[in-house]
Amino acid sequence: MKRSQISKLVGVVALTALATGLGAGWLLAQAAQQNGALWWLGVAVVLAALIIAAATVQRFVRAFVWDVRRLIDAGRLMLTVHPEHRVQPGGPPDIQEMAALLNQFAERLDQLQKERVEAARQARADVEQERAMLATLLAELTEGVLVCNLDGQILLYNRSARRLLDGSPGDAAQPFVGLGRSVFGVIDRNAIVHALEQVHSLLQRRNPDEQTVMTSFVTAAANGRLLRTRLAPLLEADGSLRGYILTLQDVGEGIERSLRRDALLQTLTERQRASLGAIRAAIEAMESYPDMTPAQRQRFQQVILDEAQQLSEQIDEVLRGHASDLRAQWMLEEIAAPDLLWAVQRRLAERLGVEVLPGAVDDALRLKTDNYTLMQGLSHLAHTLSQDFGVRSLTLSLQGVESFAAIDIEWPCRGVAMERWQRWKEGAFVADDRDGVVTLREVAERHGGEVWFQVRPSGESAYFRLLLPRAADAAPAASAPAKPFMAPAVESRPEYYDFDLFHQPGQHPELDRRPLRSLTYTVLDAETTGLTPGLDEIVSIGALRIVNGRLLRQEVFEQLVDPRRPIPATATAIHGITDAMVKGQPTIEVVLPRLHKFVEDTVLVGHNLAFDLRMFKEKEAESGVCFVNPVLDTLLLSAVIHPEEERHGLEDIARRLGVQVLGRHTALGDAILAGEIFLRMIPLLEERGIYTLQQARTAAEQTYFARLEY
User: Fold this and answer.
1) What domains, with CATH codes, occur in the chain?
2) How many CB atoms lie within 10 A of CB 523?
3) Catalytic amino acids?
4) pLDDT confidence band for 506 (50 / 70 / 90)
């Protein structure tokens, strides 16, 4: 019953009692006109009526309003989030009997729930064992693994995937890998959509007895890594596409291994030169002085033996380090033209110091390439141009030419005779099997393409044109036209598993219309030097995410902040952060952009969050970021759930909802506590008919606390 209804009911009872007393008094007053002695009796009757009315109202309100309200709230707590809660006896005998009966129901419910939990625990034992085995296997895989639903939300990932895709901790521009986050933030969306279209077409044309279809491509991750990616579909029982699995491999690691092999070969060459020189000198000395004594000859022979033995050991060492053949051919993988040119540009600039200028590029073009040999061939070309001709700048263009993709590598050639270019180009095309390099001719041969050299008619520039195969578009089924796969557009261990996200709605519907249980949240808290925004500074920020109704304690944001001013002793006494602890830590304009990236596409949750957001707002100009996420405040929601309660502090709410209070007055500790409280609030809100984000925000805005401003 609402407060307004209670007030109306009490008013009706009071007015009824008062009217009865006044009516009796009026009758006595009429009689007093006939008999003056009855006047005082009338007054006494009115006073008695008022006293009786007040007592009646008080007893009625206590017995049938407040005590009943207390029983209802206690029953709701026991039924939803705090089954250990019990009603304290009090009030009239009927209310006490009802409280005892309610406690008996609670005891029985608690017993049944424990029995159900134990039965479920036993039933899940085998599943948990298999899940733990799967988690161990995934964790130890050298390849990165991602499982995503059709909305692009990450449902599973392993350590290797996080290592390959996460940016550096200090780089605010790099996204995070985490459950419920969008894969399109770390891997190019167009590449994934193209692969899904191929899979969709293959699924419609495949024989039911065939193995699972798979497609592969190469793309640049958001953190700059060049990744070989394989995509396999996850299917429902009816054969419809449910999601997909991505396996990731760093192409750059193969190039690094190639560099190490080249270094090994160079080291071997240098060591061989010294050993062979010593052997040659010893032999020449023996030939020049045939009459030397046996002892001298023995010393020279020992030198030859020692050097030969050392040379043999060096060769064995290099062969052990040379784990794979330099010319091992890799499968051709798909890659988008812009990604390929970006990778080439980065490779040549970082390794050879050659500037690569962008030329004409067909952004829609996709190629089938062996990226390893292609990088090797282009690196060899750039190296020889730099060493032999002093070329420090190349222009790369990539255009479609019929069924091929043409890569043009162009450089200025003014001042060099044409004959020299012709002689050099033949040597650039041919390499001895023992050279340890890959030429453009070999690259073309491995791709079934062609390469040629040409000087522009103006004589100011020359270029190599390398023809590579284009990626063929997936053809529709012959028997029936294939429907185009429409990939959803998405706005954007130890704990790996969240497969229920397969059934989450997409990102397109307005967040306000979505149920509270389906949203992704970031719970955050900040510790400060004081309580005055604009004057005080932030010293610590903690945040963690809620995905599919669970706090993800492994995916947290925790950072001390240098406030660039002394921390008052009164503040240190609360949160324990000292000047020494924040010395050398990043400042707020560095931390807030990273936090902004961490909370993107989520609903913000916190206790008294208006204060924290006001502190963030004071730093908008310095940090360059503005937090515009939807907000739910546990302070306001508590007033919605328990309007009769006067205390809505974080510890008061935790005590009411049965949440253990740990780690208070640390940013991350308070964020964790607020998150646990919020999860217990959701069923209580649903009890009041509040299911969606919009309903929760509207109810919170109607509370008294929402009027507070900072």
Assistant:
1) 1-137 (no CATH), 141-324+493-505 (3.30.450.20), 333-469 (3.30.565.10), 509-707 (3.30.420.10)
2) 32
3) 665
4) very low
